[in-house]
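Quick one, probably user error.
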């Protein structure tokens, strides 16, 4: 889809801090993170909804792998996985490392943005890649 920002990221028309990429999927840091380490997992092929993504099991397995890497990388207490689908019309799973320090309830406040510098975001991406075995 030409105007889809996630398709543009897949096609390298928009830069992203990618933490994982294979033939079918890509994971990158959210540019408006809700928590430290907030990562988006998307299919490279354009699907509007998460439940339409194929191969569905591989998609969720990848989100789980990234979540487990984030647990290790950021000493998170747990991981929230969210599919909202209203912000960008391209299937995506939010992987949200949760700590006691983020002082949020179980449901993430999507109006809140954690302010991080580009260098901080790069460091987060490098750390996640290391935990994923990609650096």
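Nope, works fine. Designed sequence:
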């Amino acid at each position: 889809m030409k105007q889809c920002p996630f398709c543009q990221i897949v096609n390298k028309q928009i830069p992203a801090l990618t933490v994982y990429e294979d033939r079918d999927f890509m994971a990158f840091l959210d540019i408006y993170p809700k928590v430290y380490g907030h990562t988006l997992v998307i299919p490279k092929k354009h699907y509007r909804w998460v439940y339409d993504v194929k191969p569905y099991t591989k998609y969720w397995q990848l989100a789980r792998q990234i979540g487990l890497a984030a647990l290790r990388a950021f000493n998170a207490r747990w991981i929230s996985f969210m599919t909202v689908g209203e912000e960008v019309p391209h299937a995506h799973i939010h992987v949200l490392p949760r700590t006691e320090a983020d002082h949020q309830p179980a449901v993430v406040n999507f109006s809140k943005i954690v302010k991080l510098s580009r260098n901080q975001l790069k460091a987060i991406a490098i750390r996640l890649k290391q935990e994923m075995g990609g650096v």
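The first helix runs from residue 5 to 10.
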